[in-house]
Amino acid sequence: MMGMLSMLIAVAVFVAAIGASSEAEAAFAAAAEKEDDDGGTSSKSKLFDNLVAWVRHNGGRVDNRLGLTNHKRHGDVDDDDDRLVRGGVALQNIQAGTELLFLPWKIVFGTIANTHIVPENKCDVLQSYAAEVDAGRASFWYEYLALDDSLSSRVPSLWSGLAIAELQGLPPYYNVESTTSGAAGAAGGGGLTDWYLSNCVDNDDESDDEHDGVVAFVNLPSSSRQALLAAITRAAGLRFLPVYDLLNHHNGMVNVQSFADREGDTITTTVDIQKGEEIFISYRGGPENTVDEMFRRYGFVEEWPRYYSWELEEEEEDLRDDDSNESEDADDGNGGTTTRRRHRMKFLVLPQQNVAIYPPTSMLSQIGLKNLNIDDVLAKTAKHNQSLSTQQLIHFRKVGVDFMSTLTTTAEEDMLILEKTNDDLLMMMSPQNLDAPAGEVEQVMDIISAIRYRIKFKQGIQMALDTTNEVLAVRKYANASDEL
Questions:
Q1: What is the pLDDT of residues 245-297, one digit of tens each?
Q2: Do 420 and 457 touch, CB atoms closer than 8 A?
Q3: Is pTM, for the whole model, over 0.85?
Q4: Closest by CA position to 390, among listed 479, 294, 297
Q5: Residue 214: enclosing H or E segment and its boundaries?
């Protein structure tokens, strides 16, 4: 029974992350609360206090106003979102420029001695991490590892082919059939997972089965799976930074910065943080921080800013005056040639359904660097959209509409599918199905995450198309007025 209860807790964590239906969330929250009575989640505060004491004992510094709580999300677009997340918060007001955390290199796991250097053999880092997990309370790192819940993570690089197929070919998995290392290899989606399975695991089986990558991961010892998942979801360049890696990501509300020197890593606040406000870092920022890349790496899509950028192939004759197209001539099989044009679809979703079409690098480069002045960003967005040529906007609209027509369902249809799939998961987790295979439960959870991702992706495209139509409509009206 305890095994099943542990699985319920894992599902509760997952549901909180993806936002299942209120009925499902209530059921899983009840299971989590039951476990809490036996010393579960309520002990997180004590574990955090132990971690802070351990950091200080080993030469680090932690501001007393930094706490770890389960709290309502701060700053998300959806004000009705009552889901709770674990993360760092300000227990009292904290002024800008305050040192929040200092970590000497000797307590940053993955570094050599008292330096910031990571070993050349990266496998050694993860194998050492797994060994420390196995050591349990005997490990020097026990207080740090006690708050590592990485095993509950479900990242797309570990999905089965069935879950990936639910993405309907959306980035980052354009072509499931091109998988070279199980589902994890689709479109290069495996990243660190593929590297680890290829370089750090003894595997004499040369089978080409489509699910080999996933099977190989599942067959790893629990400590090795935890090490790999921690590296994917928590590490910074295979450096594991205590306390810091418990902070959540929000590229629109980053309010701390990190500075590394020979002594260690220092984290300071960049703005005034009020009591109860969440402390945010950036897992990944700048022009490379696309929606699909964040999803591939971490398995979530933030509310804003969301940068969409992916390449599509068209067959067209007329050239456009934007700089997002490349072309090549290909044999059409009938002695002639067909012009294939590669178009990069790019837009940035901001609060209040504002969207920047073909956002400039100067705008993207600010993402993740600091707490954004959203009023300034929105003003620049409106000005930028107006600066685009009519031809660019018409082309963007055509490409977007054509792409949406290739998808097998609409966002509205996906919402109905999501509701049914949530019901299926509830049924699998009901008392009448206590023997439901864990693998099947996880697969359904992954499918739910895939459906939620494709809903967000389609909604993003539709917002971009709506913005494009609005700009064109205003321009058309202005031109008509000028003619009068």
A1: 999 999 999 999 999 999 999 999 999 999 999 999 998 877 888 999 899 88
A2: no
A3: no
A4: 479
A5: helix 212-218
Helix (H) or strand (E) holding 466: helix 438-483
How far apart (Å, rounded) are the C-alpha atoms in residues 474 and 463? Answer: 17
**CA diameter of the chain:** 83
Q: With beta carbons less than 8 A apart as the criterion, state whether 273 and 255 touch.
A: yes
pLDDT in tens, 162-178: 899 999 999 987 543 33
248-249 and 280-281 strand pairing: parallel
Task: Mention every residue, 6+ apart, whose C-beta is less than 8 A from residue 344.
Answer: 309, 310, 311, 312, 324, 325
Rounded Cα distance between 386 and 118, Å, is: 47
Torsion 250-256-260-264 (CA) sign: negative
For the stretch 324-373, pLDDT in tens is 555 444 454 555 555 567 788 999 999 989 999 999 999 998 888 777 78
DSSP 406: H
Give the 3-state secondary structure of residue 458: helix
CB 393 within 8 A of CB 401: no
Which tokens sit at 352? 């209040």
Token pair 């009448």 is found at: 432
Amino acid at 201: V
